[in-house]
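Justification of computing resources. Each target in the renewal requires a structure prediction run like the one illustrated here; the chain below, 310 residues long, is used simply to show the kind of job we budget for.
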Amino acid sequence: MPMWKLTPACKDYLWGGEKLREKYHIESDCEPLAEAWMLSCHPDGMSRLAEGKMKGLTLPEAALKYPGNFFGRRCAAFTEFPMLVKLIDAKRDLSVQVHPDDSYAERMEHQSGKAEMWVVLEAEPGAALYYGFARAVSRDEIEKSLTENTLTDLLRRVPVKAGDVFYIPPGTVHAIGAGMVIAEIQQSSNVTYRLYDYGRLGADGKPRPLHVERSLAVLKPGPVEQDWDFGGHLGRHKNFTVDLLQNEAAVCCDGESFAGLLVTAGEGELLCGGEAKPVRAGECVFLPADAGEWRLRGRATALLCYLTFA
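Resulting structure tokens:
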């Protein structure tokens, strides 16, 4: 039964580093290498099959040539491929951002909104991120803090360690801090409103654009809920479900959903239909919805990304 490693689309945002190349085996000419879009059908960066007779094809192109059930019945309920899976290397702080919900994004941006989750893979001592506001705030307070460059004083700063998981619903003001590598699983959207960027300059020597009015229109001016219940999953949304797999694990693709397996640490083998494929950290494997039973074997940690409901 087919299963394919994927070649990611890569991004060279100014805050990136070299860890994705050095430790996660991502091959790219990007300098710096900030993001690798491991499982993506988004037009701003599609991943491609890295092997086999369909090598080089995007997932939508491969789906047209595949004789069986490629994406699955649950995926058919979406007008577009529902999720995007990334690896992110934050050598420097990312801007303070917020994402709209589906209703606002479809009306204003003509694409879906963005809910996302982060799984911290590495964190240097002292690494932290911003996750919502520390307390309820007013629009006037936010605008005043932007003019005085004190916005971060209003935000909740959270120290992080490897293994931490954060769910970022639309409207949450957030920022990934320097010194961490993160796996991000999100709705397939590239809508990001930059609320604050520490006064940094872009590659052109000019301040990077901000989206203050749209940020203020969609942000939730208060703390984020802390106790998310995902029913035993690492994270879940209508567009994605994420489970943590470690060492020996068996899964079945029963026609309902494809599976994307992102290996985040170690190495091992993926066994399916009599085929054994070696896998290691930084590789993402796509298994079609009709792949049947498959098994991860060895000393590997992976994130399993799929759909549980439409």
